[in-house]
Amino acid sequence: MIKTLLIKSIGTYLNTLSFVSKPYAANKALALFIKPRAGKINESQSEFLATSQQEILKYNEHSIMTYYWSGTKKTILLAHGWESNSARWKNLINLLKQKDYIIVALDAPAHGNSGSKTFNALLYSEFINTAVKHFSPEIIIGHSVGGMASVFFQNKYQFNGIEKMILLGAPSEFKDVLKRYKDMMGYNQRVSEQIDCTIVERFGSRPENYSTAKFVETINASGLIIHDELDKIIPYNDALMIKNNFKNSKLVTTQGLGHSLNNEVVSNYIFEFIED
């Protein structure tokens, strides 16, 4: 209740501010949207990640923290989602280690031990590209916006070594993600429209042009899409849109596993797919 009132009060404040300066209000609104409030690594997570070989890569002025576990099979790159970090993969990593895969995980921009004060999927896709060039994985597994950023990466760079891509609870349309944020905050039309204009100014394209479903059309790798039918964060329909355009993919629908999909059932689907 208190959190909801705080959110609405911020929205009301920025709506009022928009009548003084729309660009200023939109910049403040966008700053809230792209700055994660969680995702830093706690003590127990740090202990687990310490079992890896850690290496910092660079993209422009940003540092990218990567974690590496050795093996003899193919290399799998793991890309976590919003307000998370590489430790979210602990259960899956332990199972992959038992099967002797080479595992690489990276922390997203402004998450975990990576650099940047703000996050966006385009920057994340460049982090992923940097990690892919360094580690040459054959398989990418991305959760939520990590799945979206993985698709953005492969659409742009078409890395030939990628054989399989697994998308867990991935959003399809950035415009829909943005709309849910606008609705949650209660922004008026002045703020909402100016946010879109600011995105064009910063990134060169409108929000509706950033689409996982559209970008997967260019991907030749085999795809596995796993999405919970009752996902409260990313609607199940997003998975259907991605599946319709991902030419060499299959969709697995779960029930009751939520958005995190951090479950042994999901791990079994992943193993079945990567070992096929």
Quick recap of the structure?
The chain is α/β, with parallel strands linked by helices and 276 residues long.
Walkthrough of the structure:
The chain is of the alpha/beta class. The chain is 45% helix and 17% strand. The protein contains eleven helices and eight strands. The protein has helices spanning 2-17, 22-34, 43-49, 90-98, 121-135, 145-157, 174-185, 189-203, 212-215, 236-245, 264-274; strands at 53-59, 62-69, 75-79, 102-106, 139-143, 164-168, 222-228, 249-254. Strands 1-2-4-3-5-6-7-8 form an eight-stranded mixed β-sheet, with helices on both faces. Helix 1 (2-17) packs antiparallel against helix 2 (22-34) and helix 2 packs across helix 8 (189-203). It is globular, with a radius of gyration of 19 Å. The termini are far apart. The model has no long low-confidence stretch (mean pLDDT 96).
